[in-house]
């Protein structure tokens, strides 16, 4: 089995943590910001030194390719370098750095390989500055219209659009350079788990079989606004109280379904939101995820059975959007599993609850993912951390998976 180098990988993590350093153990590296551009420059410099040929496409995705011994489609690995505000040093960047480390190992140890190997950096995965998330992989795979994306306005600078940032970045290349499914054999994305399961179960690697399907609903409860002092309780139509009953109903009924089901009532707004007025309209969102479409059908059934009236208020439900479960390429999942077993690491097979670029790429090319445990599951915050040892194990799995793909695809 081939192995990456712990010191070399740790140095990469340390160096890249300077780009957008918040001073509290985390980073703010919004897409195409000065900090993100500095990280891109470091990436390109290092890959050039390894002999990679670097091109960018019209969405500023970077492809750094080392040649193979034969004229074959490229094997791809990578992730994103942008972060959320006050995010951590592992989400996304670890996938890029592990792919860099795998390629560095292949080059320095002169490991023979037939296919060209490309380290990719996808632009604007987080959507923290320009919505939506997974923007560029979405454009590449036909999920989003490029024109709409170009006109996405920056949340931090009014009147500044994604197209302006793209132009200013110096990384806007031509459409011809986009990942071409005919010239690409497959993609493996390594990522921090961003949840507590691997850490809690003391597993070293997550073998990711797919991405959970999800539904998003919006509930609207309508009652009557009245005076907080003059209205006896029995005459009230309090929409916020009805909302509390809705939340209660959801917990009561969704908890009876599968234990892996997750759901969140994360956003609420009450009108008029004044302490002397009984709320007359309350909106609530529900986000629910599970890998099994049958369980998701049960979730929808629970929502359908929600009473249309609670506490003398009307209850309306509307599906905002939904996404089907994504299943990764079985052959590639198998290569990851073989690598993990040959390396002797403990592992868990799992589905990703979070969205990743790989789930869009999966539509276009054979794709899979590898998870590295997140200590206590913290992510999208400065506490985000994965131990150097587990990062190395992830990189080793990635390296050997890429080599298996090289041999067998
Ligand atoms: Zn990410």
Number of helices: 12
Q: Could you say which small molecules are bound to this protein?
A: zinc ion
What would CATH call the architecture of the largest domain?
A: 3-Layer(aba) Sandwich
Mean pLDDT comes to 97
CATH fold-level topology of the largest domain: Aminopeptidase
State the fourth-level CATH superfamily of the largest domain: Zn peptidases
Report the portion of residues in β strands. Answer: 15-25%
Rg is 23 Å
Distance between the termini: 19 Å
Describe the global form. Answer: elongated
Unreliable stretches:
none
Report the helical percentage: 25-40%
What is the number of strand segments?
15
| Structural class determined from secondary elements | alpha+beta
Classified by CATH, the class of the largest domain is: Alpha Beta
Our count of domains comes out at 2
Q: What is the helix/strand order?
A: HHEEEHEHHHEHEEHEEEHEEEHEHEH
> Biggest sheet: strands, sense, closure?
9 strands, mixed
Structural features, described:
This is Zn-dependent hydrolase. Its cofactor is Zn(2+). Residues 212-307 form the Peptidase M20 dimerisation domain. The strands form 2 sheets. Strands 1, 2, 3, 4, 5, 6, 13, 14 and 15 form a 9-stranded mixed β-sheet that branches. α3 links the parallel β3 (74-79) and β4 (117-121). The mean pLDDT is 97. This protein has helices spanning 6-16, 34-49, 93-108, 135-140, 146-150, 162-169, 197-200, 239-254, 293-304, 330-343, 357-361, 388-408, and strands at residues 53-56, 62-66, 74-79, 117-121, 184-192, 205-211, 213-222, 262-264, 268-271, 281-290, 309-310, 313-323, 326-327, 347-352, 367-372. The chain folds into 2 domains: 6-211 and 325-408, 3-Layer(aba) Sandwich (Aminopeptidase), CATH 3.40.630; 213-323, Alpha-Beta Plaits (2-Layer Sandwich). It has 12 helices and 15 strands. α1 (6-16) packs across α3 and α10 packs across α12. It is of the alpha+beta class and 409 residues long. Zinc ion is lined by residues 80, 91-92, 125, 191.
């Amino acid at each position: 089995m081939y192995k990456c180098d712990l010191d070399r990988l740790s140095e990469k993590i340390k160096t890249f943590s300077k780009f957008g350093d918040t001073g509290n153990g985390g980073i703010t590296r919004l897409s195409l910001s000065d900090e993100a551009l500095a990280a891109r420059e470091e990436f390109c410099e290092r890959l050039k030194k390894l002999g990679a040929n670097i091109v960018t496409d019209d969405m500023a995705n970077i492809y750094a390719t080392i040649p193979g011994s034969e004229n074959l489609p490229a094997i791809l690995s990578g992730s994103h370098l942008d972060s959320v505000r006050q995010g951590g040093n592992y989400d996304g960047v670890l996938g890029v750095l592990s792919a860099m480390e795998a390629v560095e190992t292949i080059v320095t140890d002169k490991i023979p390989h037939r296919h060209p190997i490309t380290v990719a950096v996808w632009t604007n995965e987080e959507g923290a500055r320009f919505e939506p998330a997974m923007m560029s992989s979405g454009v590449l795979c036909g999920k989003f219209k490029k024109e709409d994306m170009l006109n996405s306005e920056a949340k931090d600078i009014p009147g500044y659009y994604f197209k302006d940032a793209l132009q200013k970045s110096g990384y806007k290349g031509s459409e011809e350079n986009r990942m071409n499914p005919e010239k690409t054999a497959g993609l493996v994305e390594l990522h921090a788990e961003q949840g507590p399961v691997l850490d809690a179960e003391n597993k070293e690697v997550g073998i990711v079989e797919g991405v959970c399907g999800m539904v998003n609903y919006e509930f609207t409860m309508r009652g009557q606004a009245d005076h907080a002092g003059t209205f006896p309780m029995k005459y009230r139509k309090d929409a916020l109280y009805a909302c509390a009953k809705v939340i209660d109903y959801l917990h009561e009924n969704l908890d009876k379904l599968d234990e892996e089901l997750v759901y969140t009532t994360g956003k609420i707004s009450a009108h008029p939101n004044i302490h002397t007025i009984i709320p007359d309209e309350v909106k609530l969102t529900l986000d629910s995820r599970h890998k099994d479409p049958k369980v998701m059908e049960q979730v929808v059934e629970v929502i359908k059975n929600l009473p249309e009236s609670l506490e003398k208020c009307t209850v309306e439900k509307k599906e905002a959007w939904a996404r089907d479960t994504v299943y990764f390429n079985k052959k590639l999942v198998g290569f990851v599993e073989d690598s993990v077993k040959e390396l002797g690491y403990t592992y868990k097979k799992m589905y990703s609850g979070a969205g990743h670029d790989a789930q869009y790429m999966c539509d276009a090319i054979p794709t899979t993912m590898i998870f590295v445990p997140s200590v206590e599951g913290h992510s999208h915050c400065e506490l985000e951390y994965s131990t150097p040892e587990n990062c190395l194990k992830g990189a080793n799995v990635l390296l050997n998976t890429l080599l298996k793909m090289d041999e067998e695809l």
